[in-house]
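@channel anyone free to eyeball this complex?
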Amino acid sequence: MSSAVTAYVVFTVFTQMSVGALIAMLIADFLAKSKEDAKFFETGAWICVPVAAIGLIGILSHEARPILAMITMTKNVSSSLLSQEVLLLTIFVILAVVYTAMWLLEPEYGSLKGFPVIPAIVGKLMPLRKPVGVLAAVVGLVFPYISAAAYMIYTLPSLNHPTTILFFYVTALLAGVTAVAAVLSVKYVMKKEGDEPLAQMLWITMGTALVMIIVLAVGLFLNTGMLEVAETEYAQVAQQETLTSMLSGEYSTLYMARWVIGVGLALLCTIALALPLKNKSMATASMIAIVLFIVVFIGEIMGRTVLFGTNVPLGELMPNIETFYTALGPTI
Amino acid sequence: MTTYKFLNVIENCINCGGCFAICKDTNKVPHGTARVKIVTINEGVPGERNIPVSCMHCTNPPCEAACPVKAIEQRADGVVLVDKDKCIGCGYCGWACPFGAPQYPHDLHGAAAEYEGIMDKCTLCVTPFVPGATQKSPQPKCAQFCSTKCRLGGDINEILPQYREAKARNIMAWQERV
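replying in thread with the prediction:
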C-alpha cells in the first residue's frame, strides 16, 4: 500500500467521521432536557475537531509542500473539485470549532469553564449554539457529496459511480455517531452516571448504525456489479483491473475482512445493543457500544483502503492505451 | 493562429528510444522520471505497436481544470505549462490526465532536489526540469530527433498534413501487402 493511499484513507475517513461526530453532538444538544444531561453529553464534543485535525494532517502529509498547500489549495474553486472540497472542509472545520468551543466553554458545565474571560463571553452567545450546530451540520452533510465528486472523475473509472457517495455518507454517519456513543460509554463506565441520556444516545446510535450497515452492505454489493459498467472500453479495462484486484488480487483478503468485520460483526454488535438497552443494563450496553465503534472504525479503514488501493487511474493504464488512442485520432 | 501539438504516426515507431534519450538530455530530466515514454502494445504478437506517450497538450487540458492551486496553465499557443513554484505536489493532475503524463519525481539531488514530489511533464522543450530561462518558441527535440518521423511535434497546421500523408502511405503499403 502506497503512502498516498494511506493519506487518502486517513483524510477521507477522519474528516467524514468528524462530520458524523458533529451531527451526533447536535442530536445530543436537542436531546438534553436538563443541565445534567448536557453535562453528560459535553464530553462527546471533544471528538469532532481533533478528528478533523487528524484528517487534515493526513492529507497535508502527502503533499510535497504542505505549508504552501494550506495557503493555496482553495485558489481554483471555479473549476477544481479538489479546491471546492478543501474550501467546504475549511468552512465546516471553522463552524465545528465554534460549535465545540460553545460546548466546552459553557460557563456551567463545560470542561474548559475554568478558562479566564472566554467562558463569560461564550455564556452570552449560548443561545446561538444550536443554530451554529445546525449550520455546521448542513455544511458537513454537503461535504461528503463534494468530497465524493472530487474522486468521481472520468479518469478514475472505478470511483466514478454513485456508490462512492454512498460510502462517504456511511462513513460519516456510521463512524461519527458510533464514535460519540463510544466516548460517552467510556465516560459512563468510568463515572457510572448518566443512565438516561446515555440510553437515549445509544438508541439513536443503534438505529443509525442499523440503517447505515444495511446501506453499506447494499452499496458494497452494487459496487462490485457496477464496476463493470463503463462508458468507454478504455474505462472498462480500468474497472476490470479494480475488480480483479478487489475480488481475487492484492486486496481480496482486506475486502473479505471488510465484509466480515465492517458489515457482519458491526451488524451483530448493533443488534446485540438492543437487548441490554431494553433491559436498562447500561454497563453491558456501553461495553457493546465501545466494541461497535472499534469494529466499525476498523471496517471503515479497511473499506477505504480497498477503495483507494484498488483504484486504477486511466493514466496508469498505458499498455491498454490503443483503444483510446485510436478513438482520439480523427478528432486531433 | 499557431497551436502546438504532438501527433504520432504509430506505425512508424520502432521503439529506438531516441525521443526518450534526447528529452532526458535536453531537459536534464533526472533518473526515474520520463517526460516521454514508449509504450508497447501486443508485444511479440501480430499487431505489435510502439507509441511514444507524453503530455499531449490537450485543447481543454483536464489537468489545468483539476489543479487546486492554479499551477497549470495553457498558453495562447496551446502549450500546457506547470509553474513549479506554485505546485504543491498533490497528485490530482495525475489522476485527471488520461495519458498519465504528470510525473512526481523522488530521490532528487543537487539543484533538482527542490522539486522533490513536484509535478513535471513535457513542456514541448519550453522549460527544462529545473526551470530556468523560458524559451519563446517550442521546439520539441523528440520530434526533431525521431529517425522514422513517427513523432511529429510543432504547429498543428504544419504537422497535420505530414501526419495525413504518413497515414495514407501506411494504408497504401498495407493495401499492397494484402
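from a first look: Chain B has five helices and six strands.
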